[in-house]
Amino acid sequence: MSSKKIVVVFGATGNQGGSVIKTLLEEPSTNSQFEVRGVTRDASKPAAVALAGKGVSFVKADLDDKSSLTHALKGAYAVFALTSWGEIMDKEREIQQGKNVADVAKEQNVQHLIWSSLPYVSKISGGKFTKVLHFDSKAIAEEYIDTIGVPATHIIPGGFYNYLLYFLKPTSPGAKSYKFCAPFPVTTKLPVFSVNEDTGKYVKAILLNREKVLGKQVYIAENHYSMIDIVKTLKEVGGLDVVAEEINDATYRKNLAAAGAPDFFIEDMSDNMKFMQSYGYFTEKQAEEGRELVSQHLETLEEWVAKAPEVAALKGLPVEGIKEGPNIY
């Protein structure tokens, strides 16, 4: 029997979970201590099969099903858990999924739950912005985790680099020139990072510094960038023809509606953008404290843009598996 401690990773084949597993396997400081158990709904997926070949064991579980979670967390020392708003787009269901993980983690005597959370917009804004469902749902689950006494650390990820491309709008149908359109001033700074490369580095540092971070939030960002900074990098490093343009809330809503977004999602994103402008996603000081914990190189925006297939696709270059660049509109 292995003497290693079991770390259960949800979203094992996704952005955050995949990064966690990659780091735990590759870093000697974690590979020597921890055995990785991935949670998936389909262990036959190519990504899962590839990870199994590297020593990851897999268990099938569903966040809506407590009995399956009990099986997944049995004997676990630590758990990295997250929910996927993009899959369910249901605030109450997402909250319940987080509570399910918390309840089972407590029942199974998990020693360290690492929860992927987000800012509690309704509370931070004093009730001014109450429609950012996909932030509040994770934050409410975070509060529940702490309330029932599960030993936990909460990560607060900044925006993902690849999500920045969702703000790009072609200047005309089919054009390979773009406007970076966002409903806030071009000088507004947002915290962002490479989700695939660097989530795992933070989780590794949290696992190795348990006593230091229990009960705390760890903020994840390589840096804070303004729209001007982002566009400059996309032009100079990525070779894109792009300009920054501030749009008003009405135009932002119209763009989302034209893309087929449901009304509640439009309200969510509109309030989200207003919150970031008024209160900030999180502070540069909070981001710096997170980086100090990691003490490893984080992939810069420039490094990501230089290699990102999504950026190449936006220039019209053929990229395997990508027909075109992401476009929120």
Automatic annotation (TrEMBL):
Swiss-Prot/TrEMBL keywords: NADP
Any one annotated GO CC term: nucleus
NmrA-like domain mapped to chain residues: 4-304
KW NADP (keyword) present: yes
Domain of life, source organism: Eukaryota
Keyword Transmembrane: no
Family: Belongs to the NmrA-type oxidoreductase family.
Protein name: NAD(P)-binding protein
Biological source species: Hyaloscypha hepaticicola
Species classification: Eukaryota, Fungi, Dikarya, Ascomycota, Pezizomycotina
